[in-house]
User: Fold this.
Amino acid sequence: MLSSPITPFIFKNNFYHIKRDDLLKPFEGNKARKFYYFYKNEFPNIKRVISFGSNQSNAMYSLSKLCKLKGWEFIYFTNHIPSLLKNNPHGNYLGALKNGAKIIEIDLKGDELRHYVLSLKDKNCLIIEEGGRIKESEYGIKLLAQEINDYCKKNDLKVFLPSGTGTTAYFLAKHLEVEVLTVACVGNEEYLKRQWSYLSDNQEIKNLTILPPRRKYHFGKLYKNLYDIWKELKFAGIEFDLLYDPIGWDTILFHDLKNILYIHQGGLQGNFSMLKRYQRKYD
Assistant:
């Protein structure tokens, strides 16, 4: 059974409740929730998993761990692997390679890449969409909702988490009796709603709200204000992901949100590469 603590956190003289999913094992954060269905159940016919996404994806690393535990082959397609990363593997890329992942560079992206990977499915293969955007993710995220629902109601809290594909936010809202707030970190609001359309079966989730960020952030680009927020958060006592969480906390500050439970979704394995980039540019 998945379970993680809720800890108090003071940041910029405000009190927050933090759901510490970053402490989950053997997979941390939202990937522990998204892939719990496959971890918990047996699939005797499955021999390989195929997925796709960015070259430093948290999902890629977590899937490589899952496949290693299950004895499955793991094949991962990505649009671009910089020569610097090929020559000096690090972060999630290195972690996935160490777990036996076959990472393949392919000249496809967006829907073209997605449709190509989907075409590879056979009876011995699991296709895991980018970032764990699959309906099976509901299995573990529902457990997260059950862990926090009564706590949020008792303390009159809303739930906040930043979103990539928005899978965690979507299924949380589906199973919670409180409002879920999120911010799109990869694309805009329209992008996020399109991701949800893959999961929804046209079901409307009324307690799910997308908040606008302070400004438009281009995914993976370096921003001094986000780096500063990340360092302040770490100094306050908790290390967060460097890609999504700074945008999340900047959105909290921008909207002056109070009385929230923040879902710490992990992803710290990917901090090494982002931190090196920030240090080269700003330190």
In short: The chain has a mean pLDDT of 94. Residues 138-155 form the longest helix (18 residues).
